[in-house]
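User: Okay, second chain of the day. Same drill as before: sequence in, structure tokens out.
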Amino acid sequence: MIRLFFSVLLQVVASAIGLVVAAAILDDMALDTSGFLIAVAIFAAVDVIAQPLIIKIGLHYARALTGSSALISTLVGLVVTTIVSDGLRISGFTTWVMATVIVWAASMLAALILPVTIFKRWLSQRPAPAGSSARG
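Assistant: Same drill. Structure tokens below.
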């Protein structure tokens, strides 16, 4: 259960980092501070739900989709978030393409780096559960 919690937390934090990085780099992409948390929650939820579906569709219909499933789910997440939330605005075809790539890359890097740095330190500082040995 704790592993699932940290997996979801990691996805949300990585999504937030990806959105912030893309908004900082791209002039035609804006994140509103008032709607930021809602935009991140929507984007992360859509991304988590869309990626397995896109992989399944790719395996069934087009093998080429499986490798690009993360990019496609990022684009789907951005589209749904801009439609549903007032916290994210993207305009222009080039900005959509660049936002997809930047959010995907920054989220992927955050998802690789965060567990090794922050979460591993936090988990190592927690006391061991009762009945477990100190040997690993």
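The two ends are 20 Å apart (CA to CA).

User: Thanks, on to the next one.
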